[in-house]
Automatic annotation (TrEMBL):
Keyword Amino-acid biosynthesis: no
TM region(s), chain numbering: 6-26, 38-57, 69-89, 109-128, 134-156
Annotated source species: Paraperlucidibaca baekdonensis
Broad class of where this protein is predominantly found: membrane
Keywords recorded for this protein, A-Z: Cell membrane, Membrane, Transmembrane, Transmembrane helix
Name under which the protein is recorded: UPF0056 membrane protein
GO cellular component: plasma membrane
Length: 202
């Protein structure tokens, strides 16, 4: 049976609408085909990393790094919370500085906008709760849906922005700050889960 709940949760974390806000400057600057090529490379990088975590589960922390998964959840939650707070007060422009040099844009899309504490954590939990290859399949299906959604939003944005530039900019600003609340909520949930796991191990 298809794990619909896992798929929807992972898609919520890789929400194309939310990611379009993170990548809005690239969507504005790049032609459609170039954006699709760069996004494809970033998605492949992210898919490989997510598949690794989904396939190994918590073992990559406990067996290889000799740390508890709960420690990652707590630290990742703190980082995610900092991003959410910065996003809320400074808007979308605050996130463009998280990317590196333009020549490495595909890698900087993968990290930190795809590969982040919440998505890595979700990949690990899928690897624990689902058969390994099912978890990997959910990862790639989610990434494919997310990519199609982002390319479609890029197409719509290019058409609408020419006629309603001020309206689009206002929409991005408002939606971005509202999305920061979602980021903060996921961050607090990660912290809560990590602390609960850590306390249970004591």
């Amino acid at each position: 049976m298809f794990p619909l709940d896992q798929f929807l949760f992972f898609l919520a974390l890789l929400n194309p609408f939310l990611l379009s806000l993170y990548l809005i400057d690239l969507m504005v600057q790049m032609p459609g085909r170039q954006f699709a090529r760069v996004l494809t490379r970033g998605v492949i990088m992210g898919g490989i990393v997510f598949s690794l975590f989904a396939f190994t589960g918590e073992g990559i922390f406990t067996d290889l790094l000799h740390v508890q998964f709960a420690s990652f959840q707590i630290f990742g939650g703190i980082l995610f919370l900092m991003v959410g707070i910065r996003f809320f007060f400074q808007g979308v422009s605050a996130l463009s500085g998280l990317r590196g040099d333009p020549e490495h844009v595909a890698g900087s899309i993968a990290m930190p906008f795809l590969i982040g504490p919440a998505t890595v954590s979700a990949s690990i939990l899928m690897g624990v709760s689902l058969p390994k290859w099912h978890a990997v399949g959910v990862v790639w299906l989610t990434l494919a849906v997310m990519m199609v959604g982002l390319v479609a939003l890029k197409f719509i944005h290019d058409r609408v922005r020419v006629k309603s530039a001020r309206l689009v900019d206002r929409y991005v600003e408002i939606t971005g700050r509202v999305s920061a609340l979602v980021i903060g909520t996921y961050a607090v949930e990660m912290l809560a889960q990590g602390i609960s796991r850590w306390v249970a191990l004591m």
